């Protein structure tokens, strides 16, 4: 069904603007329509620029001007300068797009903490290398491919216009034909209820989500009194110990042992979690692991994609809050100041910073210090 929608939308876009082989903005939040628009842009002979919906309008407008973007695919017209094309107007079109028109590049921006224009470009080859890293991940950590009642369901929490959401949530799992679960909104109650109702198995998120879960649980325990709080802490230590002794079945035992808590959080179905984007508090890492949700810390950046995840099965290693060994496509090293440098075939090869083109050949200095 999705393929039919994509082919139809691609035909509609091709008929409207042709195969320009230039950038077209994709201004949508996570949804089936985002997927349709993304592939329709590529299939029609154009390149998608993934608009960060959390950017200030002025910053996005500057980026669109830098990339000389004229067309913006959307759900409804906005305030940016350009010709808005609602995705619903493209679907249902007849006709075909020449196969040779299919484009081979995409672009997205960094988190923009400095408010600079930073645009990273990835080719199909570099994205393929990101996906192929998954081979060694599954070999080292089979649990990442584990199903619950016959299904693997990834929560589409991270935005697809961000490197973590695009590569780790979208490309890693939809390549293998697994299920995406979209959220109605991003409130804590909606997230927890959605995970329980639809039996989500995988949650990849930034520390904000895990810290919110920890904070709410601590508040609930305080309301129940000191006795209940100490009882929970004792049970959490036991659950962690069992998982260290029995890493295969330990997480399921832990969720059962702490059922009174897990039934109010994500439920019993969650099998694998990854944190990334910034530092996760040790206490939150220990809590999520202790509950049997198997929290793994990862590392990546807009310029380098996702480059490592701590994949060891026992929580005593994951609770060290390390980022794991580099994937097959990349190498790590430290410079004299202790900064992490990365190189490999899955990194972007060029980026624009405030309109200035930079080619990323050899070692990329992340600016992150390793300890």
- Major beta-sheet overview: 8 strands, mixed
Write down how many β-strands occur, each being a DSSP E stretch of 2 or more residues.
Answer: 17
Question: Helix count?
Answer: 13
List the secondary-structure elements in sequence, H or E. HEHEHEEEEHHEHEHEHHHHEHEEHEEEEE
- Spans of at least 5 consecutive residues whose pLDDT stays below 50 are none
Average the pLDDT over all residues and give the rounded result: 95
Q: Report the principal-axis shape.
A: globular
How many angstroms does the end-to-end distance come to? 48 Å
What is the alpha-carbon Rg in Å?
A: 22 Å
Tag the structure with descriptive keywords:
four-stranded mixed beta sheet; eight-stranded mixed beta sheet; 21% strand; alpha/beta; 371 residues; 38% helix
Structure description:
This protein has 371 residues and is α/β, with parallel strands linked by helices. The chain is 38% helix and 21% strand. It is built from 13 helices and 17 strands. The strands form four sheets. It has an eight-stranded mixed beta sheet with strand order 4-3-1-2-5-6-15-16. The N and C termini lie far apart (48 Å).
């Amino acid at each position: 069904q999705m393929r039919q929608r994509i082919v139809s939308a691609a035909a509609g876009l091709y008929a409207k603007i042709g195969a320009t082989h230039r950038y077209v903005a994709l201004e949508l939040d996570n949804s089936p329509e985002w997927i349709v628009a993304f592939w329709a842009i590529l299939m029609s002979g154009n390149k998608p620029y993934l608009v960060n919906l959390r950017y200030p309008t002025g910053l996005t407008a500057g980026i669109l001007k830098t990339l000389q973007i004229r067309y913006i695919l959307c759900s409804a017209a906005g305030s940016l300068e350009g010709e808005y094309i609602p995705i619903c107007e493209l679907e249902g079109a007849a006709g075909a797009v020449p196969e040779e028109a299919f484009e081979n590049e995409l672009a997205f921006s960094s988190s923009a903490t400095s408010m600079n224009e930073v645009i990273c470009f990835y080719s199909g080859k570099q994205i393929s290398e990101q996906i192929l890293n998954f081979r060694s991940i599954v070999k080292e950590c089979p649990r990442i491919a584990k199903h619950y009642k016959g299904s693997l369901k990834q929560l589409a929490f991270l935005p697809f216009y961000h490197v973590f959401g695009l590569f780790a949530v979208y490309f890693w799992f939809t390549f293998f034909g697994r299920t995406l679960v979209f959220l109605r909104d991003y409130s804590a109650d909606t997230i927890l209820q959605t995970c329980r109702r639809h039996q989500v198995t995988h949650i990849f998120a930034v520390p904000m989500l895990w810290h919110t879960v920890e904070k709410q649980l601590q508040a609930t325990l305080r309301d129940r009194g000191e006795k209940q709080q100490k009882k929970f802490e004792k049970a959490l230590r036991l659950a962690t110990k069992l998982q260290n002794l029995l890493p295969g079945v330990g997480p399921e035992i832990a969720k059962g042992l702490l059922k009174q808590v897990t039934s109010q959080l994500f439920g019993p179905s969650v099998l694998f979690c990854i944190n990334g984007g910034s530092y996760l508090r040790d206490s939150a890492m220990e809590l999520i692991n202790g509950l049997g949700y198997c929290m793994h810390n990862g590392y990546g950046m807009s310029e380098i994609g996702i480059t490592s995840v701590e994949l060891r099965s026992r929580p005593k290693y994951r609770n060290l809050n390390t980022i794991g060994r580099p994937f097959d496509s990349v190498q790590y090293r430290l410079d004299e100041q202790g900064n992490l440098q990365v190189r490999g075939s899955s990194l972007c090869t060029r980026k624009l910073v405030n309109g200035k083109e930079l080619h990323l050949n050899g070692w990329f200095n992340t600016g992150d210090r390793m300890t």
